[in-house]
Specification:
Layout (H helix, E strand, L loop, with lengths): L6 H10 L1 H10 L1 H9 L5 H18 L9 H16 L16 H7 L4 H12 L4 H8 L3 H20 L8 H4 L2 H5 L5 H13 L1 H19 L12 H22 L1 H21 L2 H9 L3 H8 L4 E9 L2 E10 L4 E9 L6 E2 L6 E3 L2 H4 L24 E8 L6 E14 L3 H7 L2 E18 L4 E11 L2 E10 L4 E8 L5 E8 L2 E3 L2 E3 L8 E2 L7 E8 L9 E20 L8 E5 L2 E9 L4 E6 L10 E8 L8 E10 L5 E3 L14 E11 L6 E14 L3 E5 L2
Antiparallel strand pairs: 1-2, 2-3, 3-6, 4-7, 5-7, 7-8, 9-10, 10-11, 11-16, 12-17, 13-14, 13-17, 15-16, 17-25, 17-26, 18-19, 19-20, 20-24, 21-25, 22-23, 22-24
Helix pairs in contact: 1-2, 2-4, 4-5, 4-14, 5-8, 6-9, 7-8, 7-9, 8-9, 9-13, 16-17
């Protein structure tokens, strides 16, 4: 096709408007017409294709960033519209109507859609393999796979039932070898094999014949473009412009008033910094994304992909050193269903290892069906997904989505599936290239300590990041009889403003261990406002482990239950039953004033050096601050409404795997207990 345009021509296009876009297409109408003919079946559709392409290229022209050639950028838009118009047929149009190269067209016609597109773009239009992959938004390996399988199919069509018996492990080298892109060591190895293998010689020769036929035939340029084809489109564009001017004239008085008001608001906006707030309040429906954009902390993008009647739109992205948040919208155009996407469950990042940090894991973003924007339409869901942070300051995330999950509407199904329909998956192919730039974070050294139940806890840093506020803290890990396993914090207070704590952000490993200290981070909502001066850290609860060693001999020949005293309570061994598996049941149902929620123990067999595989089930109750007990299995249990709940295990049911394992001893190491806290630390950042 025609070479890519230079920057001067792009400037000219932008200055002269849609007429220059029409002229550009007119100069290249032969190649684009032939390309479109493979998708569409009649002249009316072809005119619609060119009309839509010209309008969209003109509309999107300000967004063209010259990160690829203009020719490729336009071709991508052109192919997208080809696919939209041919969607009703479900396949590319039959090309046998073309007046020449009938055999070649007929051989291409039965190919699957992806193979046919790859063949047409690479061999018919003259794009390189890399350029064709860019237009079709597939990887280089996928493109090579499509070209190989497509060429094999065309060869079978042209040569009938003739079989080719080349070695399969070397067939993958055919395209790279013929295009002279193989690395020298691989090329030498391949040529040595060719010299010794007659079947591969014959197979490669036939394969090469087809590629030469496809490359050298003028099968695209022979397709005639009808007379006055572009002229008809110019007439349609002129009529559209005429109608636009007529409507504009009728609205002139109203427009003048609006412009005056808008100019006044705009002027205020520039002087007060409020323009971004007003603009995004009008244009962005997602409240959380809107807040990021109004603060200048995110990027608004407008990317869309459709598969099997479901449209996914990527609306915005916010990135920092701790995570990358991608905001999206999913619309089911066929049914009243709402879908969510989940990282690593249908969503993958093709270039994750190249551009993202691997020493951290993305935090789960809980769906919010109660948000006003998700109540408006039954077939549209607005959400966000968390990804790993970028390694560099900016990059392009290649998102591939292969399945999404439907939300449950039935109340029982909601409880059983955490809000999702267990079988409600929708598969498809949605692909995006999302440009991302990291926003900076600010760190404040705290160097404070707090004492929790006699144990010193370090408060090291306060980090103000665009996507979250983080408190970095340390818990001692030396061999104490009493230690803290985990801390839960309440809301943070910054400059007398409450910053909400992440209910699931009780502690994340910071991956920079220190001797005898575990370093963790607590996540809060982002803080927007002036520079922080005063911070109040409020502790909510702590989980403790206590060392308390005791051994209890087990004798399968003795009657059960048997009891023993431990940690101020009476523990019962209800059953020891040898079998496949052997079962041991330990219980304690006296909850009042009990020191522990659960026990730490192990069961030892007759051969003390042989480890025993233990499966375990537990039963328990929830107890509130007033000692009221709640059945964990009750369908009416509302955990969120229970004041200071604690979970006490009442029964441990152990299954010892093996052939009639005989337990000898129960070794208790200690127990766990939770305590609610009122402790707080006030810190000045001056």
């Amino acid at each position: 096709m025609v070479p890519a345009m230079d920057s001067i021509t792009i400037v000219t296009l932008r200055e002269k408007g849609i007429d220059s876009v029409v002229d550009w297409f007119e100069q290249r109408q032969q190649s684009f017409y032939a390309l479109g003919w493979f998708y569409l079946r009649n002249q009316q559709q072809m005119e619609e294709l060119f009309y839509r392409s010209i309008v969209k290229v003109h509309k999107e022209l300000p967004r063209y960033k010259q990160d690829s050639s203009f020719e490729l950028w336009v071709a991508s838009i052109f192919i997208d519209i080809c696919q939209e118009l041919s969607a009703d047929d479900g396949m590319l149009a039959s090309s046998a109507e073309s007046p020449s190269h009938q055999d070649l067209f007929l051989a291409l016609d039965p190919l699957p859609k992806e193979e046919k597109e790859a063949m047409i773009l690479t061999y018919g239009t003259g794009y390189s393999r890399a350029e064709a992959a860019h237009i079709l938004r597939v990887s280089a390996d996928k493109m090579k796979e499509l070209l190989f399988s497509g060429t094999q199919s065309v060869r079978r069509q042209l040569y009938g039932t003739t079989t080719f018996n080349g070695c399969k492990e070397y067939q993958q080298n055919y395209i790279d070898y013929l295009e002279k892109t193989m690395e020298r060591p691989e090329k030498i190895e391949f040529e040595i094999h060719l010299y010794e293998c007659a079947e591969c010689q014959e197979d490669l020769a036939a394969f090469q014949d087809v590629t030469l036929m496809l490359h050298h035939a003028e099968w695209m340029s022979d397709l005639p473009v009808p007379d006055n084809f572009i002229a008809k489109i110019k007439e349609r564009l002129a009529e559209k412009e005429k109608q636009r001017k007529l409507r504009s004239k009728k609205r002139k008085n109203v427009a003048l008033v609006f412009v005056s008001i808008f100019a006044f608001v705009l002027g205020i906006g520039f002087f007060t910094g409020a323009f971004a707030n007003v603009y995004y309040a009008w244009t962005e429906e997602d409240e959380q994304l809107r807040t990021f954009l109004q603060q200048g902390l995110g990027q608004s993008v407008n990317l869309e992909s459709e598969s099997d009647g479901v449209k996914i739109r990527i609306k915005g992205v916010v990135a920092d050193d701790y995570q990358t948040l991608v905001f999206y919208e999913i619309e089911d155009t066929n049914e009243d269903k709402q879908y969510v996407m989940n990282f690593e469950d249908g969503l993958s990042i093709e270039n994750e290892r190249e551009i993202m940090k691997q020493d951290t894991y993305p935090r789960y973003q809980f769906p919010d069906l109660k948000a006003e924007m998700n109540k408006k339409e039954k077939n549209v869901y607005h959400g966000k997904v968390g990804l790993r942070p970028l390694e560099e300051e900016s990059g392009v995330i290649k998102m591939n989505i292969e399945r999404i999950q439907e939300f449950a509407l039935d109340e029982q199904e909601v409880r059983m599936g955490f809000g999702y329909r267990s079988e409600g998956f929708k598969t498809g192919e949605w692909e995006f290239e999302v440009p991302v730039t990291k926003q900076p974070s600010i760190e404040y050294e705290l160097n404070e300590q707090a004492e929790i139940e006699g144990i010193s806890v370090r408060l090291d840093k306060l980090i103000m990041a665009p996507t979250a506020t983080l408190l970095e803290y340390g818990i001692p890990m030396d061999g104490q009889e009493k230690r803290i396993d985990r801390i839960q914090f309440d809301d943070l207070e910054v400059n007398n403003v409450k910053v909400k704590a992440d209910q699931f952000g009780g502690g994340y490993n910071y991956l920079q261990p220190e001797p005898n200290w575990q370093i963790l981070q607590m996540y809060y909502d982002p803080f927007y406002g002036e520079e922080p001066e005063d911070v109040t850290v409020q502790f909510h609860s702590a989980y403790f482990s206590f060392e308390d060693h005791k051994s209890i001999e087990l004798d399968v020949n003795q009657p059960y239950p048997q009891t023993f005293e431990y940690a101020g309570s009476t523990i019962s061994i209800d059953k020891v039953e040898v079998g496949q598996p052997t079962t041991v049941v330990i219980s304690n149902h006296e909850i009042e004033n009990r020191k522990f929620e659960t026990l730490h123990f192990n069961v030892v067999g007759e051969d003390e050096n042989e480890s025993i595989s233990i499966g375990m089930e537990t039963e328990g109750v929830i107890v509130d601050k007033n000692g009221v007990q709640y059945d964990m299995n009750s369908p009416t249990l509302d955990y969120e409404k229970i004041e200071q709940p604690r979970h006490f295990v009442t029964d441990h049911i152990l299954m010892l795997d093996g052939n009639k394992v005989i337990p000898k001893r129960l070794d208790l190491y200690g127990y766990s207990s939770m305590k609610y806290l009122d402790d707080q630390v006030k810190i000045s950042l001056d």
